[in-house]
Amino acid sequence: MAEKVIPRLIEDELKVSYLTYAMSVIVSRALPDVRDGLKPVHRRILYAMYKLGMVHSRPYKKCATVVGEVLGKYHPHGDQAIYDTLVRMAQEFSLRHVLIDGQGNFGSIDGDMPAAMRYTESRMSRLSDELLKDIQKETVDFQNNFDDTLQEPTVLPAAFPNLLVNGTSGIAVGMATSMLPHNLREVTDALKYYIDNRDCSIKDLMRFIKAPDFPTRGIIYGLDGIKKGYETGKGIFKVRSRVSIEEYGKNKEALIITEIPYQVNKAEMIKKMAELVKAETIKGISEIRDESDKDGVRVVIELKKDVNAQTILNLLFKHTPLESSFSINAIAIVNGVPRTLNLKEIISHFTDHRFVVITRRTQFDLRKAEDRLHIVEGLIKAVQNIDEVVRLLKKSKTVEEAEKALISTFSFSSLQAKAILDMRLARLVSLEITKLENEFTELTALIAELKDILAHPDKIYTIIKDENETIAKTFSNPRKTEIVMDTVEELDVEDYIHKTNVVIALTKSGYIKRSPVELYRRQSRGGVGVKGSGIDGEEDVISLLEVATTHDTILFITNLGRAFYIKVHEIPEASRIAKGTHMRLLLGLNSGEEVKSCLIFESFEEEKSFILITSNGIAKKCAITDFVNAKKRGITAISIKQGDSCIGAVEVKDTEDIIITSRKGLALRAHASLFRIMGRAAGGVRAMRISPSDEVIGIAVIKPGVTLLVVSEKGYGKKIDLNDFNPKGRGGKGQIYMKINEKTGELAAIRTVSADENVLVITSSGNIIRINADEVSVQGRPARGTRLVNVKEPDIVVDAAVIHRISDTD
Q: What are the pLDDT digits (tens) for 262-279?
C-alpha cells in the first residue's frame, strides 16, 4: 500500500497544534467554570467521592481510595497532582469554606507537607453536599470520561456561588486566573439583590460585597483596586498583617503578629525576617519567636532598647510578605470560552446556571410525579374493580395474557397493567386503599405546583434566593478580613530610617561621611581622643563636623555662596576611621568650590530663616523656603566679593540674638531683627568690622539656658556666660571673648551648648574626642581657658560639634 504524504508548512502545523494544546489546558485543566467555580480536577474529585458515598454523614475513607478512583476513572494526570488538589480543598487556611472534611495531617500554614495519602482520610464537607445536590435529577449534562467507559458531569449543580465564595487560581497558556475568596453571607445578599434588581450597577452590588474575605484574616487597605477589579475583572490591592506593639521590658517593645496575608508561608516569612536582620537591612531586632499554636498565629519580634517600633514595622512591611499585594484577575470559562468577567457578570452567570438547574430539576420531579400519578390511578381503578380483575387473572394462563386482558378490558396502559400485576394482596386492605387515594391527592397537588413553577420564571428566581438564604444561614460566619477604607500610605524614605544621632564629618579636600554617634565614646576633659577619620593629616584635615539625626535635612553653604541640600540619611554611612565619599559625588560643585558650613533642620517651613556670614564679616538673612529647589544642583545664597568667602550659617528668629566670633578672639552680639531678609542674589550687609589680619570663624544663636563654648587650635577652651556680651548694632568690632597667646593658639571653633549635652572636638589629623559640656568650666571673657584636648604639634583643633538629644517623642 502506497504511503500517503500530505505536504504541510511546519509553522502552520505548530500553530494548529499549539492552539489545540492551549485550548485543552485552558478549558480542561487550568481555568474554573463560572457556574460551579471548579476546575475539572476539583469537580472530578467531588463527583468521585459522591459516587463512593463519602458524604459528610458517612465514615471517612482513606484519601488513597479517592485518588485511585479519580485517577482510574476520570482524571489521568498523576496521583500526586490529584492528592495535592484534594489536600488544598481540606485546608482551612486555603479555602474560605473547605469542601473536603479531612482527618489527619493535611499540611500547615508554615508550608509543612501533608502526610502521604495512605495515612490521611477524608469525606465531603457539609457544604460540598450543596454543590452536588440534585445531580441525580438530570440537572446537569454528562459527558464520556477519558476512555469512554463512564459518564462524568460537565458541571455541578452548585447551589451557591462557589467561584466567589472560595475563589481559585490557575495558570493556563497565555492567561491566568486569580479569583479571591469572599464572605458567604455578603455574596448571598448580593445575589438576592441582583435577582430583584437586574439593572443594578456594580456599585450597588459592592454595598453587599465590599471586598474579598480571606481565611487567614489580615487587613485590606483601600477599595480603589478592588473596585476596579469588580468593574473590569482586573485590579490590585494590598493586604497587611495584623501587628500590635507591646512593651516587654524597660524601654523595650515587641511587635506581635497575629494575622498574616492570604497564602503567605509563615515559616518562610520568618526566615526572610531573620535574613534581613543578619544582613543588617533591618537593624534593631533582638529576637524573633514563633509562638503560634492550634488557636492561631502569634509571632513575636522583640526589639532592642529605645528602637522605634513603627520604623521597624515599616521596614518589615517593605521587605517581607507582612504586606502583600493581591491581584484580581477574574477569568473563567463561559460556554466553553475563557472570559474576563466583572462582579455582576459572575453573579449573572451563576444565576442563569441555577435557573437552568432548578428548571431541569422541576421538570424531572414533574415527570416522575406524573408517572407515579399514572400508576396510582391504575391501582385505584384496579382496587375499585378488584373482583373482575381477579377473575381475569385467574382465567389467564401467562403473565403476558393477563396483561393484555387488563389492557383490553379496563383500558389500562402497559405501565398500569404491569403495576397491577406486581401489586401485593396486602394492598387490598382498606388502609392501603386510603393511602393510595391520599397519594393521588398529594401527587395531583404536587404536579399543579410544579407546573406553576415552570410557568412562572419569577418563582424559580424566588427558589434560588430561598435556597441560598438557607445555605447562608447554615454555613456563613462573620467577616474575617478587616477593611480599612484608606489606602496604604505611601511612606517617605524617612519612615524606613531609624531616627538616630549621627556625626557628619567633612574634610577640607571634600570627603564626607556619617557615622553613628555611639562610635565616639565619652572621655574626660584633657583626653587625646579617638581616630575619627582615615585621612592623612599632612594631606587633608577635617573642616566641618556636625551632629544631626538621620531624618534631618542638611543645607550646605559653599565658599562661593551657593547652597545645596540633601537628606542626612543620603550621606553614605562609614566607620569612624573611614575616609568617606567625595562631595562631588553627592553635590554639583564647581571647580574650586568647597563646602564651608552647613545648616541642619527638620523640614522647609515658611517662618524659618537663617543668617549667612562671610570671613570678612558680611551677613545676609535668607528665608529657608527660598531654597526648596536647591537640592543637589545648587542655587545662589549670597553674592561673594573677590577676596571673601562664606564661612557659616545659623537658623534664627527675629526675637533672638546672634553672636559672631573672630579667630583673634573678638565677638559681636547683635539682634537678628537688625538683618532683613534679602533676595538670593543679594550680597548682604556688614555685620562685624574685621581687621585685615583677622577673620570670622563662627556664628551662633543665643538661646535661653545655653553658654558659649570656645575651643582654640591647641586644645584650650572654656564656656562663657552669654550675658557677659552686650548687644551691639551691626557693623561694630565686638568684644574680647578669649585672650590668645602662643600657648593657646588662635581660636578654632565656637558652639552654644547646654549643660547636659556632649561635645565632639576634632583635630586636623582626624582625632575626635567626646566630652560632657558640664565638665568644661565657665570663665570670664578675657580668660584663656583650660586644656580640653591634648594636641601634639603639628596637629591642631579644627572644629567642634554638639550632640543634641533626641526627645522621647521622636
A: 999 999 999 999 999 998
Q: Which three cell numbers stand for residue 583?
A: 562631595
Q: Which residue has the cell 393521588?
A: 440
For residue 472, the tally of other CB atoms under 10 A from its CB is: 20
What are the pLDDT digits (tens) for 618-647? Answer: 999 998 888 888 887 788 899 988 889 998
pTM of the model: 0.71
> Cis omega (within 30 of 0) on the bond before 794?
yes
689, 731 Cβ separation under 8 angstroms:
yes
Number of domains the chain contains: 4
Same domain, yes or no, for 544 and 464?
A: no
Q: Report DSSP letters for 325-388, one per residue.
A: EEEEE-EEEETTEEEE--HHHHHHHHHHHHHHHHHHHHHHHHHHHHHHHHHHHHHHHHHHTHHH
| 470 lies in the same domain as 504 | no
Residues 281 and 369 in one domain: no
- Going through 552-616 in order, the beta strands assigned E by DSSP cover 553-558, 562-567, 581-582, 595-601, 609-614
**Measured between alpha carbons, how far is 280 from 207 in angstroms, rounded to an integer?**
46
Residue 262 annotated among the catalytic residues of the structure: no
Q: What is the CATH number of the domain that holds 49?
A: 3.90.199.10
For the four alpha carbons of 65, 66, 70 and 73, in that order, the dihedral sign comes to: positive
Same domain, yes or no: 673 and 711: yes
Q: Of 680, 683, 682, 648, which is closest to residue 556 (Cα–Cα)? A: 648
How far is residue 207's CA from residue 242's CA, in Å, rounded to a whole number? Answer: 25
Band (pLDDT 50/70/90 cuts) for residue 23 is low
Catalytically annotated residue among 21, 119, 496, 716: 119
**Inside any domain, residue 788:** yes
By residue range, what is the domain housing residue 521? 499-803
Based on C-alpha coordinates, what's the Rg of the chain? Answer: 43
797-803: strand order across its sheet: 530-531, 767-772, 758-763, 797-803
Candidate from 314-328, 526-540, 692-706, 752-766 with smallest mean pLDDT: 526-540
Contacts of 593 (CB under 8 A, 6+ apart): 558, 559, 560, 562
Let me know whether 520 and 605 are in one domain. Answer: yes
